Amino acid sequence: MAYVRAWRGRHPGVARGVWWAVTLLSLVLVIGALLLPNRMAALQVNRFVRLPGEAIIGAAVMLALPRRPRIALAALGGAVLGALTVLNLLDIGFMEYLGRDFNLVLDWGLLNDAQSYLADTLGGTTAVAAAIGVVLLVVLVITVTALATVRLSNILVRDTRMATRGTLIAGTAWITCSVLGFQYAGIPVASDRVANRLQSEARQVRDTIRDEAAFGKETRSDTFGNTPADQLVPDLRGKDMIFTFIESYGRSAIEDPIMAPGVDATLQARTEALAKAGFHAKSGWLTSATYGGSSWLGHSTTLSGLWVDNQQRYRTVMASDHLSLTKVFKKTGAWDTVGVMPGVQKGWPEAKYYGLDKVYNAFQMGYQGPKFSWSTMPDQYALEAFQQLEHSKERDKPLMSEIILTSSHQPWAPIPKMVGWDELGDGSIFDGIEAAGNKASDVIADSTKSKEEYGKSIQYSVTALTEWLERYGSDDTVLVFLGDHQPISRVSGQNASRDVPISIVAKDPKVLDKIASWNWTDGLRPAHNAPVWKMSSFRDRFLTAYGSTKHPKKG
């Protein structure tokens, strides 16, 4: 301190400039934190030209307190304000990627998933550096905001008479603006943003806790929970059933002006190719329970018939005995069941809920080729591995399969290309394709490029799946495939719907006749005005269409 005082004495002009600069920065930081919105689109000047009521109340309290309690309260208030700033930034990120706010109770685990995604996309070193950077940034924001608040409180009490007068004037102005509804550029001048945000967070925590109990009761009720095995899907007996989810396959792929031309041409070409092979399709729309990511929520919503839109609900469903659509086939005893999960790289206890006798993860399909960013292997290889490991085997029962295709997972770089089916081998053939592809870092930052490459990835996944069906499908094959969610808003657009396409493909005309009343569109491309259902309604509609008898189980 003595050194600092001596320096100030030698350089009074510089010291005064530094003092004013630090004070101004502290004021900007605190006011900015008080007014910071939690939406990217709201980061505009008019949001920061407002009068924060919390600052006025805080000033009044600081003026009334003795020194030590004042400093302690200022530091605590600044730390809370810093934490709210972090939550606002998390909301911005979650809204951009998942189309919703960050949930203070449920979403901390997703941050670990985000780090894993970065590691798979940009490399482990980048992911570790990013994680360290984020932690340091959070600590810095909270610490600096606390120090800034303390500094402003110290300055405030230097002249209590003037500060009191200024606080009264500001309070009067805030009340006047609030009562008269004064606005600037369409935004109220009087702001109580922090108070509203705290109330919102409290409501979200309360609602989340209440939802857990209510949803637990919902899972214990099941329209088909007590249906005898011989009364489940009798109209599909003898059919090889395949339920396939295509990552991020959303309505935008079919209707956005950048992606649609290529995707629609692919859907038309593949519809015609399947028709030549004897297959026909009907397609509609489902509204997904998730957006931009968290694919497992879309999978579980479709197959459970429950609206699974957060991690807490997902855990509740996975621990329940609520009948999943795939488990229906196991329960009948008339099908063998298998899962093909190239995105699974660790233990996956969910196999029990889905009724899968066997699951092939990323390490169990013999793949020796390169990863394509997050995707551990190209869809074409995963489908051929399924063919060689399970679908081609002689068996005394038909096969029910759940397949998750991952090549259309963001960041859509590099993207695999189709190769000859007889040339797949152990996947090494993809080495050159991966090396020649785009770098993820070049695509992530460019919205137009992301859209273009996303569209190509959907074309690839649809082509791989339908070529597999054309090559290996039989008269008794029934394919149900759909998207799990829309891509992130940078690709699907702000305020995009949550709709995803769904198609049922079969050779046996009786299979599609059973869903004629659904009014779905012929072919693989659903019409714009085709029926739109909640994703959670599909299970019961499907089971009913194929002859299942309702025997409800009460919660």
Describe the structure concisely.
The protein has 555 residues and is an alpha/beta fold. 53% of the residues lie in helices and 10% in strands.
Describe the protein's topology.
Elements: H1 2-10, H2 12-35, E1 51-52, H3 53-64, H4 67-98, H5 108-122, H6 124-156, H7 160-180, E2 183-184, E3 187-188, E4 190-191, H8 193-219, E5 240-246, H9 251-255, H10 260-276, E6 280-287, H11 295-304, H12 311-318, H13 325-332, E7 336-340, H14 350-353, E8 358-360, H15 379-391, E9 399-405, H16 431-436, H17 440-444, H18 447-472, E10 477-483, H19 489-492, E11 499-506, H20 509-513, E12 521-522, E13 532-534, H21 538-545
Helix pairs in contact: 1-2, 2-6, 3-4, 3-7, 4-6, 5-6, 8-12, 10-18, 15-18
The helix fraction, in percent, is 40-55%
Count of structural domains: 2
Shape: elongated
CATH-defined superfamily of the largest domain: Alkaline Phosphatase, subunit A
Straight-line N-to-C gap:
69 Å
What does this structure look like?
Helix 15 (379-391) runs parallel beside helix 18 (447-472). This protein folds into 2 domains: 2-208, no CATH class; 238-545, Alkaline Phosphatase, subunit A (3-Layer(aba) Sandwich). Strands 5, 6, 7, 8, 9, 10, 11, 12 and 13 form a 9-stranded mixed sheet that branches. Strands 1-4 form a two-stranded parallel sheet. The chain has a two-stranded antiparallel ribbon with strand order 2-3. Helix content is 53%, strand content 10%. It contains 21 helices and 13 strands. The chain has 555 residues and is α/β, with parallel strands linked by helices. The mean pLDDT is 87. The longest helix is centred in the first third of the chain and has 33 residues, at 124-156. GO terms for molecular function: transferase activity. Keywords: Membrane, Transferase, Transmembrane, Transmembrane helix. This is CDP-alcohol phosphatidyltransferase. The chain crosses the membrane at residues 17-36, 71-90, 125-148, 168-187.
